[in-house]
Amino acid sequence: MKGSFKVFRRLAIGAVVGTAASGLGIYHHKQTLVFATTREFVDFDKFMAAPVTPVKTLIEDSDTMKSRMEFMIMKTQAEVCRALEEVEGGAKFNVDRWQRKEGGGGITCIMENGKVFERAGVNISVVHGELSPKAVAQMRSRGKKLKEGKLPFFAAGVSCVIHPRNPMVPTLHFNYRYFEVQQDGKHEWWYGGGTDLTPNYLDKDDVKHFHGTLKQACDKHDETYYPEFKKWCDNYFVVEHRGERRGVGGIFFDDVDKPSQEAAFSFVKDCAKAVLPCYLPIVKKHMNDGYGYKERQWQLLRRGRYVEFNLVYDRGTKFGLFTPGARIESVLMSLPQTAVRK
């Protein structure tokens, strides 16, 4: 992986030098790409692997949301993985860069059997092609006005689920994604995502910290976002056949296409940046707490509920399974190593 990544880095530098004067508004400085128009920095050396999209294409299309979103999710993936590795103190993520024959691919990062994290997955996917009839039906069921038949699409997102070893440390899930569909010669786009917390044992101060951090990220953009998206999260993560909510919520949204593409993208970026500040302090607070057999069994039971929700209700899981050529291992990354059902 390191050898191929060095080749990639040299290609990236060469591509930038070759196009710097072509009006793309990009220059290279100290192995970092800087988008002059938005002042966005992209340090390729810090990514977990080479991007899914060819570097030359990313640079040539740097003003498109497709490229900017891919850079954003790769940066988010790297920052979260490095932070978890630091907490773990020795264990490293296994990196698997995969391709999808129908178009695109992804980077799956998994860390297992650590002292702090029993299983943690941080994945990105950048896929394109044609929507399957099942995927179209799923989108239409939530109000999207999509035609029958083959519709070209593009989707890019970062998804993470962290299952800690200590039952006193909550499970974390976050996902932020961008979607485009081409229909009648036009590109329809929207964002979705959210961050939620699932504790086994409730600590009110942890919940206040978690929600407070997410609220700050939302309030920077619109003070109606947090109450609206918190309510959406509460009502989405429900194991209906059990009559239970999955955890203590967070924020969740879908189909965000206002007030503008740039504003929506800025909001999603700030939500992604809030993940580590809202979660890591909770991990560090509880990762050395004592526990025994009783607490472990309760943790496994709660994980069973987590699995039930993801396999029965979760939209992301369904979309992944309905997408032709989907990589099942990555779609089911959210499942823990062990769980029990009662």
Number of helices: 11
Which range does the strand content fall in? 25-35%
- Ends apart, CA distance between termini: 43 Å
Radius of gyration: 20 Å
What characteristic shape results from the CA principal axes?
A: globular
The unreliable regions are: 1-31
How would you write the strand order of the largest sheet? 4-5-6-7-8-9-12
How many E-type strands? 12
Characterize the quaternary organization of these chains: single chain
Main beta sheet strand tally, sense and closure: 7 strands, antiparallel
Order of helices and strands: HEEEHHEEEHEEEHHEEEHHHHH
Structural class: alpha+beta
Helical percent range?
A: 40-55%
Mean pLDDT rating: 84
Blueprint (SSEs and pairs):
Elements lengths: L1 H18 L6 E4 L2 E4 L4 E3 L12 H6 L4 H24 L5 E6 L4 E9 L4 E14 L2 H9 L10 E13 L6 E13 L2 E13 L5 H16 L5 H12 L1 E2 L4 E2 L3 E8 L4 H13 L1 H12 L6 H20 L2 H8 L5 H4 L11
Antiparallel strand pairs: 1-2, 2-3, 4-5, 5-6, 6-7, 7-8, 8-9, 9-12, 10-11
